[in-house]
Design a protein that fits this description.
single chain, about 475 residues, alpha/beta, 9-stranded mixed β-sheet, 16 helices, about 25% strand
Length: about 475
């Protein structure tokens, strides 16, 4: 039977694991700097703010003022909670002269006095060094469990330091604990990356035991989400364009990059693990914003993507059939006669003659500019061009980049790893180079040119739009 779980209140964590065993002992382990204190403090803080559950943070590491200073950087006002009687901080180093037993007795007495339902001991590693033997440490844990669970019903986090990054060295406490959470910190292409591993959690169903997280404005876990289940907007509301450019369709990315400059070429490198719906969160928003302002769009799909899927994505973002038909042109290659089932906005060119195909593309650009009075935004599947034209594709792409600068439009070149040499050949010419990838179900992007931090990409949390939100992983 599943145990009674208490919601942590930590963003994304309850979605990942459902909660922590109420009245249980949870070991949070990891090497220094991985975010253990932040997770434990977030558990206490959110318990008080969201559920009115008082908490105690007992530390052998730092004094109360330093704790408050560090937590304010995460957006946690523990001093306010203390004044409301929902929080107490105990700096245990000043109490150790009286012995471990008296220190723990005081901790439990304080917890009982404020009716605490959440307790953190930071760190158990430091505390265990006060015992003369492993037998004493085990006896202490049994006593702690008895008093905390049976008398107080207090869910307790024990913080444990790991001497080596990513290597869990299990002790007695992990075996008797109700849950074990391990935090790791590393890098992806030289950028900060963090992950949380649910090694053990009694009574909780763990479909996804590993996820990414950030310490940006508090401890947040990026739990995997099913994009197909998101609510689609009825009407797309376009964002304002930054000065001298067009919007990326993602407000925080506009702040990071300043939008996409007019006349620029954007190289978007797509990880093979990503589905169309996942990388579309980066590609479709600027296009939808552009079309919603009655401006034209030209697409050459990437390999494996049909005109019907492009149409579906644009409609998902709230664009109407009329808008798509009037402002879009989707270019496909063919070696036969035009197909009778193609809608009017699908244009087919014969790629057996690359020069003729390029002339047809130039004429298409000129036509839409004359018709709509604006240069088009373009998404070009570079892998499809390489498949159709071989090495001649590079010459055509180079000329396309020159055309982009000349007419002042924006071109997004989408590169999948089917032709690895494409990135090497095109990266020097791109004004902006972005890579989009995925780890543990978390979609992430980062700028190679200009260099940016690693960002987690999430759908709009309100579900009202498909405009994604990006959060730096810090």
């Amino acid at each position: 039977m599943k145990r009674n779980l208490v919601k942590t209140g930590v963003e994304g964590l309850d979605e990942l694991v459902g909660g922590l065993p109420r009245g249980g002992i949870i070991v949070v382990t990891g090497s220094p700097g991985t975010g253990k204190t932040s997770l434990a403090a977030s558990f206490i803080y959110n318990g008080a703010i969201r559920y009115g559950e008082a908490g105690v943070y007992a530390s052998l590491i730092e004094d109360e003022d330093k704790f408050y200073e560090y937590m304010s950087g995460l957006g946690y006002d523990f001093d306010k909670l203390k004044k409301k009687g929902l929080f107490r901080y105990l700096a245990l180093p000043t109490l150790l002269e009286s012995g471990v037993a008296s220190s723990m007795t005081l901790t439990l007495d304080v917890a009982e006095s404020i009716g605490a339902k959440r307790l953190v001991i930071d760190s158990y590693t430091a505390l265990s060094q006060m015992f003369k033997s492993q037998a004493e440490a085990r006896a202490f844990l049994h006593t702690l469990i008895s008093k905390v669970v049976r008398q107080l019903g207090c869910t307790t986090i024990l913080i444990r330091e790991e001497p080596r990054a990513g290597k869990a060295e299990y002790g007695f406490e992990e075996f008797i604990a109700d849950g074990v959470i391990m935090l790791n910190a590393g890098t992806i292409d030289g950028r900060q990356f963090r992950e949380i591993n649910m090694l053990k959690m009694r009574g909780a169903e763990m479909r996804y035991p590993t996820a990414c997280f950030t310490l940006h404005q508090g401890f947040k876990v990026f739990a995997p989400r099913e994009l197909s289940k998101l609510r689609r907007p009825a009407i797309f509301k376009p964002l304002e364009d930054p000065p001298g450019g067009i919007t990326t369709g993602i407000p925080d990315l506009d702040i990071e990059l300043g939008g996409y400059p007019k006349g620029s070429s954007i190289l978007i490198e797509i990880d093979p693990k990503l589905t169309l719906n996942e990388y579309a969160m980066l590609v479709v928003p600027p296009v939808a914003n552009y079309i919603a302002k009655n401006r034209p769009y030209i697409a050459i799909p990437t390999g494996g993507v049909t005109w019907k899927e492009i149409t579906r994505l644009l409609k998902d973002y709230g664009l109407s059939d009329e808008q798509i038909g009037k402002f879009s042109k989707i270019v496909l290659e063919t070696k036969t006669e035009l197909r009778t089932d193609d809608p009017p906005y699908v244009v087919r060119v014969n790629t057996r003659d690359p020069e003729e195909a390029y002339r047809q593309f130039l004429n298409l650009v000129a036509t839409v500019m004359k018709e709509h009075g604006n240069p088009p935004i373009k998404t070009i599947g570079m892998d499809r061009l390489a498949h159709a034209l071989g090495e001649k594709a590079i010459s055509i792409i180079y000329r396309g980049i020159d055309l982009t600068r000349e007419v002042g439009c924006v071109m997004m070149g989408l590169v999948k790893p089917t032709h690895p040499w494409l990135v090497e050949r095109l990266a020097p010419l791109a004004d902006i180079h972005i890579k989009v990838t995925r780890r543990h179900g978390c979609i992430m992007l980062y700028g190679i040119k200009p260099r940016t931090p690693l960002y987690a990409v999430q759908p709009d949390p309100t579900g009202e739009t498909l405009t994604p939100k990006i959060t730096p992983i810090t």
